[in-house]
Design a protein that fits this description.
This protein has about 130 residues and is of the alpha+beta class. The protein is about 50% helix and about 15% strand. It has a two-stranded antiparallel sheet. It is globular.
């Protein structure tokens, strides 16, 4: 499996489960982990401190660990991705975040300023789900 394929899998899984998209630095961290490089290399290329790179990486590993259901680290990333692909367990957990059935949800819309007022006019709408 190539890094590009693994990155696509991670991006898709991350977006489906959290709605988050990877930043450029996070992609560089993933690439470095895939190629067994050190954080210092990323720091030099991105002009960021090693500590900042480690902080970003720590958050990324935590998020991926939550999604994959097991601890993800820089050293086990490649093995974990290959395992999920080999076992056809991709994508891991897909969670839909919907309110409970029968719950009323309020949507507010803000209109442009009215002619007689400097304030925005606010209207609320109650919608019954299902």
């Amino acid at each position: 499996m190539s890094f590009e394929e693994a990155l696509k899998l991670i991006k898709t899984t991350l977006y489906i489960n959290s709605g988050k998209q990877l930043t450029l630095v996070e992609k560089e961290i993933l690439k470095a982990a895939w190629e067994n490089e050190v954080y210092l290399t990323i720091a030099k290329n991105s002009h960021l401190s090693v500590g900042h790179i480690k902080d970003i990486a720590s958050n990324l590993w935590g998020l991926l660990s939550d999604i994959f259901g097991e601890k993800v680290t820089k050293t086990n990333l490649r093995l974990l991705i290959k395992k999920y692909v080999a076992n056809n367990t991709y994508p891991p957990r897909i969670t839909l975040r919907l309110p409970p059935i029968g719950t009323k949800t309020i949507f507010r819309s803000y209109n442009r300023k009215s002619r007689n007022s400097n304030k925005l006019s606010k209207s609320s709408t109650n919608l019954d789900l299902f």
